[in-house]
Amino acid sequence: MGSGGAALQLAYSDPVSGESVTLKNVKLPWHKEFPMPNTGSRPTAVLSITGAAAPSTAMGCEVLVDGKPVEKKAPSTGLVFCDAMYHS
Hints:
Largest sheet: 4 strands, antiparallel
InterPro entries: MmpS_C
Radius of gyration: 13 Å
Number of strands: 6
Mean pLDDT: 75
Number of domains: 1
Distance between the termini: 24 Å
Number of helices: 0
């Protein structure tokens, strides 16, 4: 998410715990890895990421599962929203 060392506020829903997490003064680029939750015979993960930065800072977002993109947003300024749902 983003580049150039800019700092931003980032919020995401942890797909394992289901809790909302807010991070402040995050340096870009940022990434996070999660283990896939075991939900029985059909694992599912839902991930929602929101980033906010200064209006002049461009940010994008990409969600990968097992190295394959499932959601990608082109860089834009101000806010970025990235939602992805994965079914194995």
